[in-house]
Specification:
With 129 residues, the protein is mainly alpha-helical. 57% of the residues lie in helices and 7% in strands.
């Protein structure tokens, strides 16, 4: 993991402090992300992803939701878990593949204190609803 973090920082020349400042600036998005999470709990996901369902039926092609997630610095934990659960449940219901995005633990798959997978995030991803 250290190699990957160093690689990304060196490739783009972002320091860890610059990354953290960017994440902090996303705090202003929290109300919007809360609204998204709340609407996801009220079938918002279906509304947003229905065009993909229509496309899939029309063209008989598989779909994968690639590299999705929620930065833990940008949304409250319960909102993140509800949204992750709603997206994976929708994907599973439609036989879509999916891949959770996790780079340098910014998306919360791994607990920063224990370096172990976060059980709540795993439940949201692997046993939605």
């Amino acid at each position: 993991m250290g190699f990957l973090v160093g690689h990304v920082e060196n490739e783009h020349r972002y320091t860890r402090a610059e990354q953290l400042r960017a994440w902090d600036s996303m705090a202003a998005l929290r109300p919007k992300l809360d609204a998204i999470a709340a609407s996801a709990a009220n079938s918002g996901i279906e509304k947003w992803l229905e065009p993909a369902v229509v496309w899939q039926r029309r063209f008989s092609r598989p779909i994968i939701i690639n590299e999705f997630g929620v930065l833990k610095a940008a949304a409250p934990r319960d909102s993140r878990l509800r949204w992750l659960s709603a997206v994976t449940a929708f994907a599973n219901e439609h036989c879509w593949g999916w891949a959770h995005w996790e780079l340098a633990q910014g998306f919360g798959l791994v607990n920063d204190n224990t370096a172990m997978p976060d059980a709540g995030v795993l439940r949201a991803l692997l046993d939605p609803r």
